[in-house]
Specification:
- About 45% of the residues lie in helices and about 20% in strands.
- It is of the alpha+beta class and about 625 residues long.
- It is found in: Cytoplasm.
Length: about 625
């Protein structure tokens, strides 16, 4: 239930908004901005968030956390969208879809703001007339492209304020034919700018037109008997053609297109952008995105169009998007046009060649997302192990962690489970089940003493290595009995802790007062994962034993079933998840079971099913 005072305070502020366009910023109890949005009419849009039964799940989730809001008025909705992008980048709100650009991607810059422009990499965009191409999500690809430009086009590479008052001495690049040497003052600016136009065409993907232009210049030079220049131009043509031949033709019609697809998993996602220039696939860009939980396909695409195309200075006339994200993006497109001068056309193909390219992009997105998630988990596991060693004061990095849990049903069929994690990941070969031998009824501490004693005795007898850390699922009592078992074997130095469920507190041997750590830290995430896996493994085993016992008891009570038929039924059902879901047809396929007996068994199984449901409610 939302605090009535909070709602009244928000409603009073809404009255001041009126029908102006702008951005609104929702805040939580800690005064953190948790969502930024834009609207043509701020009052009606902000008021819509105060409905606890809103049809949109994200709005309902936001309603539970919002405590206050701010707003900024703008002249138009387009201005609001541009401001929205700035505010999202500034506050990083958890409910907004956004590019995970915690690092600045590089751009290739052509410094048009100065005479005799240079071509170089930068991570900062200035509004000074320079041309920017990118962003490049792969830094190596950006450097390779820059190196290629410097090899093909003799543009200057030394930072100088040109023209110089006094002609300079040319560097080695001039003597190698890799620079026209504008520092000498003998290259007309118009001639140099022709070279810059060629570079711009190259970066824009207009390689076919560039080749044709260079061929005309080569023929003109040849007709003037300037064979050295003609040979020089032919060498540049050959290099550009060689690059084009390596690029895949994806459209016989030619043209420039961006093909965008994405993959999502929980709150994370990956966008893939395939660049088609002149009908040829020139490159692939990959962008991590976050804030996808409870977000629609339309929100994902709109956020990417906003965050990506409001940075670039060149974009194609056509953008191909997934049909599942088909929507009206007119405001976003107007903002892009205002920024780049180009109003791109959007296409949402349902079939044909464009759909095939979208599937290619989607496959790349899935692979990139999987790779990123795995890399993140690996990094988190390494950080978690280092944090465990530091916080728990362990002598070694806990590369091998074992965890033990006790499971029973109201004291009956008590079992224990032991799981092993190696390098922060489950190691299934190290998993163990134990049937409790020395205790009956409800005695979790005593059972833990038995299991730890059996496990450590086995490791000692077999001369196997001890784990770096043992985690006991439970509090001080269970941990104390486990430590007693270790001490009895002269293994008191073996690192061991208890992890209690309710408050996620950690207990140390010999200390009754628990310690608390940040439950969201990598250390606690890993320890909880280990503990929860041990609990899952134990409960599954205990339920399997109970199912077998119940089934065996049930079969004993059914007349006309002898030992042979009983064994046949047990073999048939031993790998079944839910025996009570067996159909009459399935029962009839068991060797030795006829139609009448199958019906009798089925009726007994229905009674078992009802009994099971009643038992589960009491667990």
């Amino acid at each position: 239930m939302k605090d009535p005072f909070v709602l009244k305070s928000i409603q009073e502020k809404i009255k001041n908004l009126g029908s102006v366009s702008g951005c609104y910023l929702w805040k939580n109890a800690e005064n953190e901005v948790i969502y930024v949005g834009k609207a043509v009419k701020l009052e009606s849009r902000v008021r819509s968030y105060l409905n606890p039964n809103h049809s949109d799940p994200k709005t309902r989730a936001l309603y539970l956390e919002l405590q206050d809001f701010d707003w900024i008025a703008t002249s138009t909705e387009t201005e609001a969208l541009i401001l929205e992008a700035t505010l999202i980048k500034k506050y990083n709100p958890k409910f907004n879809v956004r590019l995970k650009d915690d690092k600045r991607y590089p751009f290739i810059t052509v410094s048009m703001s100065e005479p005799f422009p240079m071509v170089f990499l930068t991570r900062k965009i200035k509004d000074n007339g320079d041309r920017y191409f990118g962003p490049f999500t792969d830094v190596k690809a950006a450097r390779d492209t820059l190196e290629l430009i410097h090899r093909i086009f003799p543009v200057r590479k030394t930072k100088l304020k040109l023209p110089l008052a006094k002609p300079g001495r040319p560097c080695l690049n001039f003597h190698m034919g890799r620079c026209l040497g504008p520092c000498q003052g003998n290259v007309p600016e118009a001639t140099y700018n022709e070279l810059i136009d060629e570079i711009l065409s190259f970066l824009e993907g207009k390689k076919e037109g560039l080749v044709q232009k260079l061929k005309r210049s080569m023929l003109e030079a040849s007709e003037r008997l300037e064979y050295e220049r003609a040979g020089y131009l032919k060498n540049r043509i050959d290099q550009i053609v060689q690059i084009r031949e390596k690029q895949t033709v994806v459209s016989l019609d030619g043209g420039d297109e961006d093909i965008i697809a994405f993959a999502r998993r929980d709150n994370e996602g990956q966008v893939i952008l395939l660049e088609v220039r002149g009908g040829r696939l020139e490159g692939k860009k990959s962008f991590p995105i976050t804030g996808l939980e409870l977000s629609t396909e339309e929100e994902v695409i709109e956020a990417f169009l906003r965050d990506y195309y409001l940075k670039v200075t060149f974009l194609p006339s056509l953008i191909i998007l997934p049909s599942k994200a088909k929507a009206n993006y007119s405001v976003t497109l107007e903002a892009i046009k205002e920024h780049t001068g180009v109003l791109p056309k959007l296409k949402f193909p349902d079939g044909g060649q464009k759909k095939s390219l979208l599937r290619l992009a989607e496959k790349n997105a899935e692979l990139s997302l999987t790779e990123r998630i795995l890399a993140t988990k690996l990094r988190d596991q390494t950080v978690a192990m280092k944090e465990i060693q530091e916080k728990l004061k362990l002598p070694h990095l806990p590369r091998v962690i074992e965890c033990y849990d006790i499971s029973h049903f109201q004291g009956s069929l008590p079992v224990a489970s032991g799981v092993m994690f190696v390098e922060g990941k489950p190691y299934k070969s190290g998993y163990r089940h134990y049937k409790i031998r020395g205790y009956e009824g409800i005695n979790d501490p005593g059972m833990m003493h038995e299991v730890i004693g059996r496990r450590l005795s086995h490791l000692l007898n077999e001369e196997e290595p001890l784990p770096d850390l043992i985690v006991i699922d439970g509090g001080w009592t269970q941990l104390s009995r486990a430590a007693e078992a270790a001490n009895a074997l002269d293994l008191g130095q073996l690192p061991m802790v208890g992890l209690a469920k309710k408050r996620e507190e950690i207990y140390f041997p010999g200390e009754k007062e628990p310690y608390t750590f940040d439950i969201h830290s990598p250390m606690m995430r890993l320890l909880r994962n280990v503990r929860d896996e041990a609990h899952r493994f134990g409960v599954t085993y205990q339920r399997t034993l109970r199912k077998k016992k119940t089934l065996k008891s049930l079969l004993d009570d059914i007349p006309d079933i002898g030992a042979v038929r009983r064994r046949a039924l047990l073999r048939y059902f031993q790998n079944k998840k839910k025996v009570e879901d067996a159909t009459l047809l399935e029962l009839g396929t068991v060797p030795g079971i006829g139609e009448k007996l199958a019906e009798k068994i089925w009726e007994a199984l229905q009674k078992l099913k009802k009994s099971r449901l009643a038992n589960q409610k009491t667990e």
